[in-house]
Amino acid sequence: AANAPPVDDVTSAHALSAAKPYHEIPGPKAFPVVGNTWRFIKGMGNYASLDFVQLQKQLREEYGDIVRLSGMHGRCDQVFLFNPESVEKVLRNDGRFPYRDGPGSMHYYRTVLRKDRFKGVAGTITTQGEEWQKFRTKVNQPLMHPRSALRYLGNINDVADEFLDKIRTLLDHNKELPHDFMKEFHKWSVESIAAVALDTRLGCLAADLRPGSDPQRLMDAAHTVFECFVLLDFTPSLWRYVSTPAWRRFVRAMDTFTDIAEKYIQIATQRIKQRSSDGEGSILERLLIAEGPEVANLMATDMLFGGVDTTSNLAASLLFYIATYPIPQEKLAKELEMALPNPREPISAHVLEGVPYLKACIKESLRILPIVFGNVRRTQTEMVVDGYRVPKNVDMLLQHMLISHDERHFPRPLSFEPERWLRGGAHAHTAHPFASLPFGFGPRTCVGRRFAEMEVQVLLAKMVRNFKIEYHYGDKLQYQTTILNNVTSPLKFRLLPRRK
Ligand code: HEM
């Protein structure tokens, strides 16, 4: 009919009035005074011992594809979404300034504690509204343009080569890597993202790192900041009222980040002054020239926060799947033999254009173990989701990990089948496009996606081109969910040189 609302209409008066009321969304009942908070108190509530992913599973089993959690003291209501159609509705209607709550500790550090240093600017991760948009607009062009990442391809190749050299020295008599090999992935990822963010080679993979050296301090600080996010922002903490030990450790680590970034910004400033030609500079130089040292520092540190643990855990999980699925590994090895006849040649942009199976392996790894297991948007306006009227200021929790594990979308969901991602292929998936969204979506999508993908593509190509990778300690990847999915399996990969 001429007056029928468009299919995607979720905010018009017509759509809202036809929807079911908000309070009818299924979910655990909030009791007077104690609300639902008691369910998360140890020794009292049935949700207290669950991590985020376990909580999601439990809620979906108990209540279905949309679940409301209200009465959480000090927090706004949360609505969990377990179907991709609803996720799409929310992400396509999140307004001009998509709102994703960030760690309050980091925001406080930048806007209150070290206000003088940052002159009122606070970066991308923790800001909202026009403040977020203003900052993001400044950094989008230098960071998100495809050419921007390619500028670093040479450095990313060098870091991967160093990583391969390093692992050759770590193999035991059985050609196996040590059980704590995860820490080498961390070094690789700090080194790779620092080459972009700080425009320098820090030397994280060196054999003899001194405790007070920049790479060692930066890696320690990265570790501490993530540990403290969990303690300060994701578990009850008094840091807003008193200076707790975790808060003090956090401030020291944040200061280290800021100081190291400042050092390399000063070096870049000198470089700019001495340069005679005005060809296109690095991301750091461009931000420095166009926006000044505060913006350059905040973006560099945001890249370090966003780009260390994410990429290292992706590399580790991806290699695990490659090692435990020999058929896809051999298919990939064949593709790489064609694309890179000489394994010692660098991985060029041209090589990366001709490796669809390699890219499919990365997508499949992120589908099974998305390192960022879910996303969140706070509603900016009243809207209809899954037939219910959801008011403004509700956190919509978009659970792509569980959606990707749902047989309705991906048959044999825990099986590593890169063929799902070969477009037009016989096994291409038919799932909704929002059923696997590891980097988010829309104007607030991951700013480092191109760098992460490039780093991991280069590493995987070099690893599989040079080694046959085996794993003999179980076929199920172990991980721990905190604010990210952290790989915990002992990464004792066995590496056998491939014939050239
Ligand atoms: C495997 C690697 C990575 C994954 C899975 C990942 C995932 C994500 C996700 C899901 C978001 C939220 C997006 C949204 O709300 O729609 C995000 C945001 C962000 N990521 Fe990444 N990321 C990765 C690597 C990186 C790297 C290498 C950088 C460094 C450049 C980075 C920097 C950021 C920043 C700064 C944001 C906040 C953007 C904003 O709020 O405007 N990420 N990432």
From TrEMBL:
GO molecular function: heme binding; iron ion binding; monooxygenase activity; oxidoreductase activity, acting on paired donors, with incorporation or reduction of molecular oxygen
Record-linked SUPFAM superfamilies: Cytochrome P450
Cofactor: heme
Chain sites annotated for binding heme: 446
Pfam families: p450
Family listed: Belongs to the cytochrome P450 family.
Name of the molecule in the record: Cytochrome P450
Species: Gryllus longicercus
